[in-house]
Backbone:
């Protein structure tokens, strides 16, 4: 299923930005977890880090999936 090029470009920009923001947030959360003063704080921050890092991984996976689909669409268009 092919999507218009302008939409694909916008999706790619959004996903790239979400990856950047998520990674920055994950890094800050990791640093805060390392500096946590209590075990409770550390546990909460580690849980937050886990959630954020999972979101980043899913965003990267979606970027890869969209790239594969675009390549497939391009090959089919050449036929």
Residues:
């Amino acid at each position: 299923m092919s999507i218009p090029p302008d939409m694909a470009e916008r999706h790619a920009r959004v996903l790239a930005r979400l990856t950047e923001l998520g990674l920055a947030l994950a890094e800050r959360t990791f640093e805060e977890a390392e500096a946590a003063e209590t075990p409770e704080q550390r546990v909460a921050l580690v849980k937050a880090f886990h959630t954020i890092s999972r979101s980043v991984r899913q965003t990267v996976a979606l970027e890869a999936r969209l790239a594969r689909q675009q390549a497939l669409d391009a090959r089919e268009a050449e036929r």
